[in-house]
UniProtKB/TrEMBL annotation:
SUPFAM superfamilies assigned: alpha/beta-Hydrolases (SSF53474)
PANTHER family: TESTIS DEVELOPMENT PROTEIN PRTD, TESTIS-EXPRESSED PROTEIN 30
Residue ranges that the Swiss-Prot or TrEMBL entry lists as coiled coil: none
Protein name: KANL3/Tex30 alpha/beta hydrolase-like domain-containing protein
Membrane-spanning residues: none
Organism in which the protein naturally occurs: Ornithinibacter aureus
InterPro entries: AB_hydrolase_fold, KANL3/Tex30_Abhydrolase, NSL3/Tex30
Domain KANL3/Tex30 alpha/beta hydrolase-like as annotated: residue spans: 31-179
Cleavable signal peptide: none
């Protein structure tokens, strides 16, 4: 399938962000918007295969670089800063969403947290969470389960792709938080790069339900 890619800088209250949109020929089925994790300056393979799988399935896909990455910093900002920037970028992407088509928001790790916290405000139809960091390693008492539950309080389904040995929260722990939700278990730890092909399959399955 032929794809077109366009990159735009978007001004936010916390500095310029970047949105890179991949769009297939013809009218897309929907729009998937993905954010990155809290460290490093590159897109990891689990996110890029998610983009490719979604585009192959006929979706427009936007990858959003937070302002701290655009500025070349290696450490992410505070949650409030990440949410502000995300909320500033999302309205600029409406032109890539087909009329009546679904909006799915998500991301990897910290990006998944941002998507969950803001899903209701952006009126998302679903959330796609890659390696949701349910708690710091070895600290289950510091649960971020309320963030993971937040979309469901507004009737927004959450699809989670989680590594079987993720120290930030196993698939079993995620299922305890999201009873009855779609949790796709793949081999791996918090990094899913070695299971990229299985991640792509899980993403395609999740999007087919949206």
């Amino acid at each position: 399938m032929t794809r077109r890619e366009r990159t735009a800088i978007v001004e936010t209250p916390d500095g310029p962000a970047r949105a890179t949109v991949t769009q297939p020929d013809g009218i897309p089925l929907g729009l998937l918007v993905l954010g990155h994790g809290a460290g490093g300056l590159r897109w990891t393979d689990d996110v890029t295969v998610s983009r490719d799988a979604a585009a192959d399935a006929g979706w427009a896909v936007a990858l959003v670089d937070q302002p701290w990455r655009v500025a070349g910093r290696r450490i992410g900002g505070r949650p409030a800063s990440l949410d502000r920037a995300w909320l500033a970028v999302l309205p600029t992407l409406h032109a890539h969403r087909p009329s009546g088509g679904p909006l799915v928001v998500g991301g990897r790790s910290a990006g998944a947290r941002v998507a969950c916290r803001t899903a209701a405000e952006v009126k998302a139809d679903a959330v796609l969470a890659l390696s949701f960091p349910l708690h710091p390693p070895g600290r289950p008492e510091r649960s971020r389960g309320e963030e993971l539950r937040e979309p469901g309080r507004h009737g927004i389904p959450v699809h989670v792709v989680q590594g079987a040995s993720d120290a930030f929260g196993t698939p079993e722990e995620v299922r305890e938080i999201l009873t009855g939700a779609a949790v796709h278990e793949v081999p791996g730890t918090h990094s899913l790069e070695r299971s990229a092909a299985l991640v792509a399959r899980a993403v395609t399955s999740a999007l087919s339900r949206c």
